[in-house]
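Hello Y.,

Per our agreement to keep a running log of every chain we model this quarter, I'm adding this entry. I've kept the format consistent with earlier entries: sequence first, then predicted structure.
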Amino acid sequence: MKSLKNQKGITLVALVVTIIVLLILAGITLSLVAGSNGIMARATNAANRNEAATAAEQAELKLAELQMDYYNDYYVDASTSSTMTDYIESKIGSGVACSNSRYFMTVTGGVVNVYVGSDATGTLVTSRTYQEDADLFTWVASKWNYDV
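Predicted structure for the entry above:
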């Protein structure tokens, strides 16, 4: 009978240690990918922030368009005598679509709200406060609020 001490190969202890190390590495990887602060959660959060920033940009463009319309109506055509804030509020009314109806903007009580969707029942993604009683449309808040 041959002696087993001269046999070469992996021992059972080395195999068990290797499996344990691989299980620990797999657990760490899963927690980094799928955990509450993992890569997937961060990617989703970044996508949501990007959507909100795009919505804010589209609202800014729509407001700039309305401001140009105001200047045209006030200075060129002399067809309005209202303040810019009143003019913008009257043009937006209960809401106006931005960027081919992807975003919807409303003005209520000195706050511009921007929704993803074709109306105010969409998801509110950003808001910003403006000054109501000024002759010009000016922002009170320095930045758009994305935590709405």
